[in-house]
Amino acid sequence: PFKWGTIWGSCQREQVALSMAIQDFRKSTRFVMFETDVAGWEYATHGGTAFIVDFDGLPYGVICKHCFGDFDWRQLAITDSRFGSAIAGLDSIYYPTSPVRDSVGSDVMDIAVIRFANDVQLPFFHGDAFVVRADTVTTSSFGDELAVSGALKEKSKIDDEVISPTFALLGLADGGSTSADPAIRTAIAEYHSLDFASLAGLSGSPVFNLTRRALCGVVVRGNIIEGRARLWYVDFSDVLEVLRAVHGGRTEVAYSKTVL
């Protein structure tokens, strides 16, 4: 049992407008924290965001492996809502291994998919899971307007009485693909008068393409220097391949893609 704070943080590049005609991806984000079994300090975090998706009628969690730090995945505490009180039971975790060819050294290897326990179905998340279908995902092009929502480690707090995550909404522009990693695209922005100095905690956050009105990726890392922010995100077409493999019970996946 614990209590949530009610902190909400936002940072907008001019204005980020989300139409009611599209899914509100912000509701699908969760603060990454872990059960510690330490009396008086039951929960802890290394920072990070989990992204809850509805894939073919089942809920899954998308997360970055590096967010686990020294915690075991079985300690992960994913709540029913962003400021919820119920913890989802976990069944297993899946992530790519044994990379070949272009996947060697790729950040797609940092993507992990959480399968929840059998009694954790979509109603557990109160309609917050982002529905992943062919018409709700896309690949960005250079200059597309993007939005990212996730929990900022610097502004979030866990103590023995209150858990207070701060979720930020950031507006950015697609900065193009990277030549070294075909799964990675960049997102860039310049901000003024920020009340935070670090983007730590955004790993695992969904990236939504406002230009194309569809989900386009998952953040794996980022930095901000003198107001200039850069995020690196895995194109959702690559995340989708991992999801499909997990959902289909496959242990291997091979695919090709065209980098825009």
Highlighted features:
single chain; 260 residues; mainly beta; 6-stranded mixed sheet; 18 strands; globular
Distance between the termini: 47 Å
Helix content bin: under 10%
How much is the radius of gyration in Å? Answer: 17 Å
Order of helices and strands: EEEEEEEEEEEEEEEEEEH
Q: How can the largest sheet be summarized?
A: 6 strands, mixed
Quaternary state of this entry equals single chain
Principal-axes shape call: globular
The total of beta strands comes to: 18
Give a written overview of the molecule.
- With 260 residues, this protein is mainly β.
- It has one helix at residues 236-248; strands at 3-4, 29-31, 33-35, 43-44, 49-55, 58-64, 76-77, 90-94, 111-116, 130-132, 145-151, 157-158, 162-164, 167-177, 184-190, 206-209, 214-225, 228-235.
- The protein is built from one helix and 18 strands.
- The model is unreliable at 1-21 (pLDDT under 50).
- Strands 2, 5, 6, 8, 9 and 10 form a six-stranded mixed β-sheet that branches.
- 5% of the residues lie in helices and 36% in strands.
- The longest helix has 13 residues, at 236-248.
